[in-house]
Amino acid sequence: MSTGTEGLISKNRNFSLTLKNIWNQLGMLIVLVTMCIILAFVAPNFLETVNMLNILKQVSIIAILAAGMTLVILTGGIDLSVGSTLALSGVVSVMLSSKGVNPFVAMFTGIAMGYLAGAINGYFTAKTKLPSFIVTLGSMTYVRGIAYVVSAGSPIVLTSETFKFFGSGRILSIPTPIYIMILVYVITFIVLKYTMFGRHIYAIGGNEEAARLTGIKVEKTLIHVYAISGLLSGIAGVVLAGRLFSGQPTAGIGIELDAIAAVILGGTSFTGGIGRIQMTIIGVLIMGVIGNGLTLLDVSYYWQLVVKGAVIIIAVLLDRLRSNM
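Below the sequence we write its predicted structure tokens.
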């Protein structure tokens, strides 16, 4: 009798573990598919090709930011400055372009500004041991301030058609930002899965002290991680400027919350060490589908903000539940 009971308990435990693994692997994908099915019935235009491409184009900016945010959160940190960095990169690149600088040089300079801002975040986080929340909260303010100073507080109009192509152009009828988004995720996937740097990121997030004792250069890795987050913020800023036809110091206000929510919805743990970049894009798409679906259903923008806030809370709750399972 005792043996039979133990066997039953063991089977139940194995079944629970199987369900947990299925949820961890496919849970958010199932949620995304379910949402799409429901919206296909209640919003007839939802599944049209034009709308699908529109969703992908709209989420491309958040997706690029979320890729960098995934790396940061995997180390157990957070980057609240991505929205401000996006604005600064867009303003700098458009300003240079408007002054006659080669558009590629202008874009490269704007992206380099993002990389520098991220590297500074990484340096202070790694060297001073200050919480990344505090460091990036400060940089969120001063980087936004620099964007206002550079632009004199006003949008700068973009005139370069080459520049505009990266935000509003199309290749084979598909918006250019979608290609950029895909390229970012392919490269990030390769880095995390097949490089030593990627393994170091997971190790630091799992146990920073243990990672240091095994010979991993924790400080150097953290600086690179935040620099990459800044780099991707710079790319997002350039793409957004090309879409808006201007560099705006107010661009990206609050967008860091969307990026964080997308990362957590994708299964990356706030505590670090657990997460996959391919699931981050699922989290991004969930955010995009929610916004698009509410718009098609003619839901007020104010109520959309309410839903977005609820999604962020649910994302953190899901992370807590996953940690306790």
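Strands lie at 156-157, 170-171, 174-175, 246-247.
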